[in-house]
Amino acid sequence: MTFLWSVFTKPWSTLPGDTLGRLVSGLGFTGAEIPVRDTAYVTPAEAVRLLPQFTTRLRAEGVEVISVASELRESVFAACRDAGVPMIRVMAELGPDGYAASVRRARRRLEDAAPLAEGYGVQIGVQPHHGRYVSSALGVMDLLDGLPVEHFRVIWDAAHDALAGDDPRVTLPLVADRLGLVNLKNAIHVRTEPAGEAVGGHWKPWFVPGPEGLADWSAALGQLAALGYDGPVCLSGQYSDPGVPVEERLVADLAAARGAAGAA
């Protein structure tokens, strides 16, 4: 199965497009998700002006922009339309008022953005995330229930699927009709303080190279092949140990992912 192997460019978010394009293509990727945030080279306020030229420079280096990680602001929709970027990635955050109220609020926000998605022809992709977010792919499916499939997509994430205790052979078929993007990263749990005699201690996610974590990339990629998915697969470049350059880890993880997918 051939996928559009992509990378999230957050580690190099301040680089201009031509420099970023050479870096990304040099690592072996032909797709990229870029952050459009206040801390990035392209900000939401400047997106209409900067994003089209930014994506043009990446394309000149053989890199297609598959999505932006940003917010549901009209200027971002307009910039994505003008730049030919098909999707805006967001997450559903949980507030102090609890899960149910937070999900209702997130749903209203998505409903309010529906006319923008339709009018500008740019999809909204919602990704699960551990912690204070809707944390499972099936939770995201519930959040999107009834919204137009052509405008609202699920972003399936290998690490967060595993952290939620799920199995890609179960979750991927269930989200297949809305599947817009697949994220590949991996994680384990590490203890944050020594365990006491009667308790198990506190644990947190620790992001690791692909072959080392809880998520089974081979199972996920095999399931995608069985489903006939041929869209972008995006390596997130998230590693908790700063001791090895992220570029080195990404080259190794891309080779591991291609091997798991049966790609040369």
Automatic annotation (TrEMBL):
<dbReference type="Pfam" id="PF01261">
    <property type="entry name" value="AP_endonuc_2"/>
</dbReference>
<protein>
    <submittedName>
        <fullName>Sugar phosphate isomerase</fullName>
    </submittedName>
</protein>
<keyword id="KW-0413">Isomerase</keyword>
<feature type="domain" description="Xylose isomerase-like TIM barrel">
    <location>
        <begin position="26"/>
        <end position="240"/>
    </location>
</feature>
<dbReference type="InterPro" id="IPR013022">
    <property type="entry name" value="Xyl_isomerase-like_TIM-brl"/>
</dbReference>
<dbReference type="InterPro" id="IPR050312">
    <property type="entry name" value="IolE/XylAMocC-like"/>
</dbReference>
<dbReference type="GO" id="GO:0016853">
    <property type="term" value="F:isomerase activity"/>
</dbReference>
<dbReference type="InterPro" id="IPR036237">
    <property type="entry name" value="Xyl_isomerase-like_sf"/>
</dbReference>
